[in-house]
Amino acid sequence: MTEKHLSSQFDSELNSISSRVMELGGLVESQIQQAIYALSQFSTEAVARVEEQEKRVNQLEVDIDYELSTIIARRQPTARDLRLLIAFSKATANLERMGDEAHKMARMVGSIIDSGAARSLPTSDLRVAAELASGLLRKTLDAFARLDTAAAVSILKEDDLIDAEFDGFVRKLITYMMEDPRKISPSLDLLFLAKAIERIGDHSKNVAELIIYLVKGIDVRHTTMDEIESSVL
């Protein structure tokens, strides 16, 4: 078998893995959108759809992990090829965890519905944050597909907006609970829901950092934004 043939096969395997990772990202994005719909409409049907999609996300994550392990064992890649496979593995793990957070969101919505306090809770700000997180995931998947480091830096900045939304919502929710102690229990569900949204943003940020690592070979996890921009842009 010629070296060219081996290289062509490896490229085909990488393309297959890339497609599977994008498929996983699409499933997780759908999960998040369904969770947002469940929150906005207090829909038990949407909650059930998120739970059903969770099974597909978990299975696809397992399949991708197995395929990556097989490629690494058979090809023993080095340098950039190895970095790419590691990036795929870490991106897959972060996407699966985003799916877990969407599942948590749906469970919290279901708990709020069961409490009977759904319509009286302050959820509008939370829906804004959830849409921000969903949009950030969409941009992250696009940046990962194109290995766009400039877009990755923009994603890192945008995650700060989600963190600010979370902090503001927590302050508002604390005030709300102090004014009406009867709403403390369902409000705590809302707090956990807000934390799940924040974590989705964090995982998108992790994938953006992977893009920079893959393209530039730089680990930016513990650097300032000014340092990242001077190194990447």
From TrEMBL:
Sorted alphabetically, which SUPFAM superfamilies does this protein's record hold? Answer: PhoU-like
Instruction: Please state where this protein is localized.
Output: Cytoplasm
Give the gene that encodes this protein: phoU
* Family of the protein in this entry: Belongs to the PhoU family.
Q: How does it assemble?
A: Homodimer.
Record PANTHER family: PHOSPHATE-SPECIFIC TRANSPORT SYSTEM ACCESSORY PROTEIN PHOU
- Domain of life, per the record? Bacteria
One Pfam family matching this protein: PhoU
State the name under which the record lists this protein.
Phosphate-specific transport system accessory protein PhoU
